[in-house]
From TrEMBL:
Its main location: secreted. GO terms for biological process: cell adhesion; extracellular matrix organization. The keyword Transport does not apply. The lineage of its organism: Eukaryota, Metazoa, Chordata, Craniata, Vertebrata. This is Transforming growth factor-beta-induced protein ig-h3. Pfam families: Fasciclin (PF02469). Plays a role in cell adhesion. May play a role in cell-collagen interactions. It is found in: Secreted, Extracellular space, Extracellular matrix. Binds to type I, II, and IV collagens. Residues 96-228, 232-363, 367-490, 494-624 form the FAS1 domain.
Length: 678
């Protein structure tokens, strides 16, 4: 029963913790980290060189960094508690008083002062139930002189209205501050936007909540890091009124996104400024602006599906755009970053339906790019330069639906090959008709190239290959073309296995052997062969007598040659560790990779991936021997039952002489030996 009670208690505690808001979970972690310093002490991380402080979560605690910058740990009283002289920690709860008095003890004395000046004091000292999001002293000090002067010069109207906009006429604790909700302020019921992020950050009109849940007799006080202003414009209205968003304004109108950016919701617009558009080559910009589909993809790539205030970003995170792509949003010190670059020029312009950040670089998604643009600053940039030199640029920049099989830059580490008519034709065979996606390719699929060749698709456990080349990275899908990064140049097949062997002088002896064994027709017919082809050198290495005997016995020769052929295509890119193939002779072939060299039955391959229309050829400098034909090592000899019994009997005979109990066993072994030999 005791065990059951303990289990129920632990379950209840777990459920209670799961019900806590992200802010409360982070606060609890800070409290746990600070408990060694006494009761109600919270660990706080402070960014070095700034006054910015954060309650710490588990990840930040171990990394000791926020926004990539180092922090120092300090220990402070948790919200609602204070120190007592001579005692450890923060054992005393703050005196419970009205909101006006509470402001003075929680770090918002300036708000208290302005409440007095604006005649708000009687209201927040009196009866009622209020919540005030009180700007910290530093928040008031950071206001521009012009803004502050406009407030304090008209305390009975401007300052009072500003303070009442920070208030709600009910008690609202952090657990009630749900993400994406709005609260009606006490100034004309204008909305206050609340965002409560999974990392524990809570924002109020994008101002960060610093210390929360300070209880008062007539409500609750939350300290925030900014003075918030009323928000009445939608994202679309912000676009229409900002002078440096002229190109964006025209683009939004052309793509018919006005209604979305005027609608209810919570979006983040990464608004490219005119400067951002001007950085793009005029030809590229005109192409996108003149293509409705590319333009819509471009704009949707700048719209995040949720509102993200800058203050909520304390580490890198991936966010989804309306286009279906993702952006890496992060921070570096005070700067916000997109995909690792500090390109956000102006942040946290709040709208009724989200937030706007100005960006000074255009974020062009892959879906709005040409093949040539996809390849720029990528691992295949040398390939596209190669295609351009060969006069094939039109296929990479036009509206033709194609897939480019582009070798990665490492393939050309020794320089680009000389371009002649043969090379140009080969490059044409790296451009496949139709815009493909690698996830829809299947084994045995045939692809047609612009060079009128047919390429085969091979799907393996560890790789996806097209002829001898395998896909080295995720494909990039552009406006009209798709880019496959390939690990080598393709070598499209030029004939059957027999055609290829006949055309290569290294295999003249093998060709004669195949003809002598009557296997020519087999290797000419359609199929899926892998041929480990012994070179002339391999045959010369055989003892002359053995070679003569082999060539004079058509049946034995055919058997040996079939051992060099498997009835499935295995290109080198599919060999990771050990691959076993069944030969046409019946025995297994073991293909492995060692020091980047393919081995067959532990023999190194001289050349891999010689492609044929009905298979693939590997050149080997030794003649492979089937298992039955190899000289047997002693440990590999087949067991002879009589011999094994004899060995056991011999061993037991000596033992049985010393131990009469083993004599019957010895007798039975002798009897079995006689049965096997008889």
């Amino acid at each position: 029963m005791a065990r059951l009670s303990l289990s129920l208690l632990l379950l209840a505690l777990g459920l209670a913790n799961a019900a806590k808001s992200p802010y409360q979970q982070v606060l609890q972690h800070s409290r746990l980290r600070g408990r060694q310093h006494g009761p109600n002490v919270c660990a706080v991380q402070k960014l070095i060189g700034t006054n910015r402080k954060y309650f710490t979560n588990c990840k930040q605690w171990y990394q000791r960094k926020i926004c990539g910058k180092s922090t120092v740990i300090s220990y402070e009283c948790c919200p609602g508690y204070e120190k007592v002289p001579g005692e450890k920690g923060c054992p005393a709860a703050l005196p419970l008083s009205n909101i006006y008095e509470t402001l003075g003890v929680v770090g918002s004395a300036t708000t208290q002062l302005y409440s007095d000046r604006s005649n708000l004091r009687p209201e927040i000292e009196g009866p009622g139930s209020f919540t005030i999001f009180a700007p910290s002293n530093e928040a008031w000090a950071s206001l521009s002189a012009e803004t502050l002067d406009s407030l304090v010069s008209n305390v009975n109207i401007e300052l009072l209205n500003a303070l009442r906009y920070h208030m709600v006429d009910k008690r609202v604790l952090t657990d009630d501050l749900k993400h994406g909700t709005t609260l009606n302020s006490m100034y004309q019921n204008l909305p206050i936007q609340i965002h409560h992020y999974p990392n524990g950050i809570v924002t109020v009109n994008c101002a960060r909540l610093l210390k929360a849940d300070h209880h008062a007799t007539n409500g609750v006080v939350h300290v925030i890091d900014k003075v918030i202003a009323t928000t009445t414009n939608t994202i679309q209205q912000i676009i229409e009124t900002e002078d440096n968003l002229e190109t964006l304004r025209a683009a939004v109108a052309a793509s018919d996104l006005n209604s979305l950016l005027e609608s209810e919701g919570q979006y983040t617009l990464l608004a490219p400024t005119d400067e951002a558009f001007n950085k793009i080559p005029r030809e590229t910009l005109n192409r996108i602006l003149g293509d409705p589909e590319a333009l819509r993809d471009l704009l949707n790539h700048h719209i995040l599906k949720s509102a993200m205030c800058a203050e909520a970003i304390i580490a890198g995170l991936t966010m989804e755009t309306l286009e279906g792509t993702t952006l890496d949003v992060g921070c570096s010190g005070e700067e916000l970053t997109l995909n690792g670059k500090p390109i956000i020029a102006n942040k946290d312009i709040l709208a009724t339906n989200g937030v706007v950040h100005f960006v000074n670089e255009l974020l062009i998604p892959d879906s709005a790019k040409t093949l040539f643009e996809l390849a720029q600053e990528s691992e295949v940039s040398k390939s596209t330069d190669f295609f351009r030199q060969a006069g094939l640029s039109s296929h990479l920049t036009g509206s033709e639906r194609v897939t480019l099989l582009a070798p990665v830059n490492d393939v050309f580490k020794d320089g680009l090959p000389v371009i002649d008519s043969n090379m140009r034709n080969l490059l044409l065979n790296h451009i496949v008709k139709d815009q493909l996606s690698s996830k829809y390719l299947y084994h045995g699929q045939k692809l047609q190239t612009l060079g009128d060749k047919e390429l085969r698709v091979f799907v393996y456990r560890n790789n996806l290959c097209i002829e001898n080349a395998c896909i080295a990275a995720h494909d990039k899908r552009g406006r009209f073309g798709t880019l496959f990064s390939m690990d080598k140049m393709l070598t499209p097949p030029t004939g059957s296995v027999m055609d290829v062997l006949k055309a290569d002088h290294r295999f003249s002896t093998l060709v004669a052997a195949i003809q002598s064994a009557g296997l020519t027709e087999n290797l000419n017919r359609p199929g899926t062969f892998t041929v480990f082809a012994p070179t002339n050198e391999a045959f010369r290495a055989m003892p002359q007598g053995e070679l003569n005997k082999l060539m004079g016995n058509a049946k034995e020769l055919a058997n040996l040659l079939k051992f060099h052929v498997a009835d499935e295509i295995l290109v080198s890119g599919a060999v990771n560790a050990l691959v076993r193939l069944k030969s046409m002779q019946g025995d297994k072939l073991e293909v492995s990779m060692k020091n980047n060299v393919i081995h067959i039955n532990k023999e190194p391959v001289a050349e891999s991936d010689i492609m044929a229309t009905n298979g693939v050829i590997y050149a080997v400098n030794s003649v492979l021997q089937p298992q039955a034909s190899r000289p047997q090592e002693r440990g590999d000899e087949p067991a002879d039952p009589a011999l094994e019994i004899f060995k056991q009997a011999s061993a037991l005979s000596k033992v049985s002489q010393r131990n009469p109990r083993l004599a019957p066993v010895y007798s039975r072994l002798l009897a079995r030996m006689k049965e096997n030999t008889g």
